[in-house]
Structure formats: structure tokens, C-alpha cells
Amino acid sequence: MTGPEYANALAISTLPIIAAVRNGDIPALRVATWTSLSITPPPGVDPYEALVTVLAAQVDEDTTLSERLAWARAFDPRVAAACQPRRTA
């Protein structure tokens, strides 16, 4: 598998990871993560680094941290406070 083929396969495989995280489905998250990591990378490519890179590349840089984590508030209301800018004294 070439580098571009691997990147494409990995990008597609991250969709179930994202869905599992947003649904709070830990068992599905584990399966989806291991499925992504089971794709054989080209020589010299670290699969963990590649997975993190592909997931990070999907983050919309034009959104605030609070907007990016809005889905998490349904699971833990403390997230809303954690997403606010810190006050400086």
C-alpha cells in the first residue's frame, strides 16, 4: 500500500471513531480504533502517529474550542466550564 492509499484508507476508517466518540459508545470506539490501527501502514510509518494526524487534520480550525467540544456537554456539563477562556488575575 502506498502512502496516499494508506492515508485515504485511514481517513475513511476514522469515521466510525468519530461517530463512537460523539455517541459516547466506548465499546464501538475500541473496535473502531483497533480497526483503524489494523490497516497495515507503509514501511517507516507509525500507525499511531498516522491515526492521530488524520484525526487532527479533520478538526475545523475556524471553530472555537467550545464549539469543537459542544457535543460533549450532553455527557458532562462540566465540559462547558472547561471550554471557557481562563480568567487572569
List descriptors.
60% helix, single chain, mainly alpha, 89 residues
Number of strands: 0
Helix content: 55-70%
Using the alpha-carbon principal axes, give the shape. Answer: globular
Separate helix tally: 5
Strand content: under 5%
**Kindly state the mean pLDDT as a whole number?**
85
> Could you describe the largest sheet, including whether it forms a barrel?
none
**Gyration radius over CA:** 16 Å
Low-pLDDT parts are none
Summarize the structure.
The chain is mostly helical and 89 residues long. It is built from 5 helices and no strands. The longest helix is centred in the N-terminal third of the chain and has 21 residues, at 3-23.
Structural notes for this entry:
The protein is mostly helical and 89 residues long. It folds into two domains: 3-58; 62-89, no CATH class. The chain has helices spanning 3-23, 26-37, 47-57, 65-68, 78-82. The chain is globular and about 45 Å long. The mean pLDDT is 85.
Question: Secondary-structure blueprint of this entry?
Answer:
Elements: H1 3-23, H2 26-37, H3 47-57, H4 65-68, H5 78-82
